[in-house]
Each structure stands twice: as structure tokens, then as C-alpha cells.
Amino acid sequence: MNKSQFQYFVPDLPQQRLGAYITVAGHEIYDKINLFPSALHNSYYLSVHENGRRFEGTEHQILYIRSGKGVTEFKRGKRIPLVAGSVNILRPGEWHRHRPDSETGWTEAYIGLGGEIVKRVVQELFPKPEPIILDLSSDAHFEGRMMSLVDKILADGVEKPHSLAMKALSLLASLAESTTSEKETYTHYTTIRRASLYIAHHLDETLDLDALAKRFSMGYSFFRRRFRAYTGFSPLAYQLSLRLRRARRLLKSTDAPISEIAETLGFQSQAYFARFFRKETGTSPTSYRATAKSDRNFRPH
Q1: Which of 233, 80, 74, 63 is nearest to 150 (CA)?
Q2: I need a labelling partner for 229 at 20 to 30 A (CA). Which of 13, 78, 84, 282 fits?
Q3: Whole-prediction pTM value?
Q4: Domain that holds residue 217
Q5: Quick one: 192 and 173 in the same domain?
Q6: Residues 292 and 160 in one domain
Q7: Contact of 247 with 265, CB cutoff 8 Å
């Protein structure tokens, strides 16, 4: 008896504006009796293995092989094994086709999701261009999480589309965090996050970049490259951007002397601070403060 179950969802405008929505979810059994692909799917899906397919727009799919084995292809004739515990994250525009082994069959579970946020999350968490095939066979908890989410989507996908889409995004993030192929990336991300927080808490100090890199067990050149990749700034530029942000806030919200603000933020002198501030904002600290106070005075109550 085939206990397969699946459901398609059409996102409405609020879901599309949110940027994350569920497109499909299901779990299916394929063996010698229940042939692949299921005749319950529409004609497009019935011809998938013969012709392959590409997801359109921002649609992605998480395909999980629960048991059995089979193959997938991202280039015709170049087969990649899928076995129990395999997770294949399929991206839009990526030609692919897959099928279970004719002898063993397989059981599968899948979640389709789309939206601009989903697209950005996958691009950031899985930046490499090659097919995303992960080995979750050693993760004792993943199947339970995957199947629990699939069941919730099948039961409540119409009534709770937003919260379930967020849970699917969380599942994607956990895949990047827990799989061997992405651990190095996440280790670096965590390290740079800690380094950025260290800089934020030491704005009044002159950065010793070599010492900072050593503090986080990295060589300086590698540390600088990773820092720029994750923050968009070099370490020094990042510190200066935070100093500028805090200077603006202090000028707006306090009457502290400009010389005191400069010292608090680690500038060598008030004159150096004023030159830096003018270069970044186009105005002097004194004029910036006066304009901010004028705006507050004329703000309607």
C-alpha cells in the first residue's frame, strides 16, 4: 500500500511580499509496486525523469532520501548516487533529474520553497556553484525534524503559511551549520562575528590587526580577507564605520563637548576627528549637531 502524500501550494501576494513561501511538501514511497514517478502528479512531473527539469523563478526544493537508493543527474549521463541520508538542495535554473533504483526503490520527503529571501539565504549559505548534495546519514535528529515539518505543512500549510515558511528557512540554515562540507564556512563566520563584536566593544582603541588576527587564531592576510567577505569592510574600515555611527548618535543625543566625543571614540585629536567626520558626511561635527538640534526643535508634536 502506498502511503505517499503531498500537496502543492500557490503563494498569495502577502506571502510573495514576505519573500519566503512554501510551494510543495510531501513524502512518497517508490518500489516495484509503486512506480516512479507517481501517476498522482500532473503531466509535467510525469515526464521529469525523461526530460529533466529546471525550477523557475526563485523556487528551491529540499529533497531527502529516507531509505533505499537511486541516482541524480545535473549533466546528462553524469550520475551521482543518492542513498539513505542524502539531502539534495535543488536551485532554480539548475537542470536536474533523479530516479530511485529499480531494485531497492526509495522513500523520499521534500519541501519546496520560494521567494527572494529564500534565494538570498541559499546563495549565502551555499555559495559554491556545484550541486548541493549533503550526507545527513550520521545525523540522528534530521529525519525527525524533516518529517515533522513536512507533516505540519501538509496539515497546516494553508492556515499557517508564514510561520511554516520560516521553519523551512530555519531547516535550510541548520543544514549549512551541521554538514561537513559547510562547517569550515560557518566556523569562519562565527570567528568573524566574534571579531566584529570585539571591535565594537573597543572603539576607543587603536587596532593592532596582527594581534587581532592572532587572537582569533588566523593569519592576518586570511583574517582580513574573511572579514571583508563577511562584513563588506576591512577591519580598520569597519571600526571607523562604527565610530562614525556612534559619533552621529552622540552629537545628536548629547551635549558632550566635541573634544570629549573624539577622545571617547579613540581619535588622536579633535582636529583629526573633525577632518574624518567632514570627509565621511560632508559637514563638520558642529554643523551636524546644530542641524540635528534644529530638526528636533521644529519637529511637530
Answers
A1: 63
A2: 282
A3: 0.66
A4: 183-301
A5: no
A6: no
A7: yes
